[in-house]
Design a protein that fits this description.
The protein is an all-alpha fold. It folds into 2 domains: about 1-40, no CATH class; about 40-175, no CATH class. The chain is built from 6 helices and no strands. The chain has helices spanning about 15-25, 30-40, 45-70, 75-95, 95-120, 135-175. The protein is globular, with a radius of gyration of 26 Å.
Length: about 180
């Protein structure tokens, strides 16, 4: 069915034609129904989005705080890993372990690319390190952080499976 409506104009029958066009436009099309389904986001993608926002906010506020409060920005790494693991935990609980590991890797990649750029732009306090960030170093960092994110995602996902299994066993023991 086409989304275009063609009308032959007849001035003597103008009101009927307008009503007919409006009725045709109000009819749902397969494209419209499909678009409505696409507007709802799956729960696991919402969790990923929240994780990405959390990492971005940590990078932003952590960069500024490290400069103002004079502490090394790298001390915030455990908080980043906690976000990766929590995201993977929640996703694995709702979906499966593979998706949890994948989302951990995505967060690690995001943090090592966009997050690193945020920290550079906001002049985060990185201590006395005078390492020049070359393209090769940036790529190596992205690869390592993606792998580390996947590992933390695996840990979070395995914890989710353990909790789920213990919860299921406890429910079975109830009379």
């Amino acid at each position: 069915m086409s989304n275009f409506v063609t009308v032959d104009f007849d001035p003597s029958n103008f009101d009927v034609q307008v009503v007919s066009v409006v009725k045709k436009l109000k009819q749902p099309t397969s494209v419209g129904r499909h678009a409505e389904k696409q507007l709802t986001m799956k729960k696991e993608y919402k969790i990923l989005l929240i994780g990405l926002v959390a990492v971005g906010l940590l990078d932003t506020f952590g960069s500024v705080a490290s400069r103002l409060l004079d502490f090394n920005y790298s001390f915030l790494s455990p908080v980043s890993f906690l976000i990766y693991g929590t995201t993977a935990f929640l996703v694995t609980r709702n979906r499966d372990l593979k998706v949890g590991v994948l989302f951990g890797a995505i967060l690690g990649f995001f943090d090592s690319t966009i997050g690193l750029k945020i920290s550079i732009l906001l002049d985060a306090n990185t201590g006395d390190s005078a390492i020049e960030l070359t393209t090769v170093l940036w790529v190596v960092t992205a690869i390592l952080m993606t792998g580390l994110g996947a590992l933390v995602g695996l840990i979070g996902g395995v914890l989710a499976r353990i909790v789920k299994k213990k919860s299921r066993n406890a429910q079975q023991k109830l009379p």
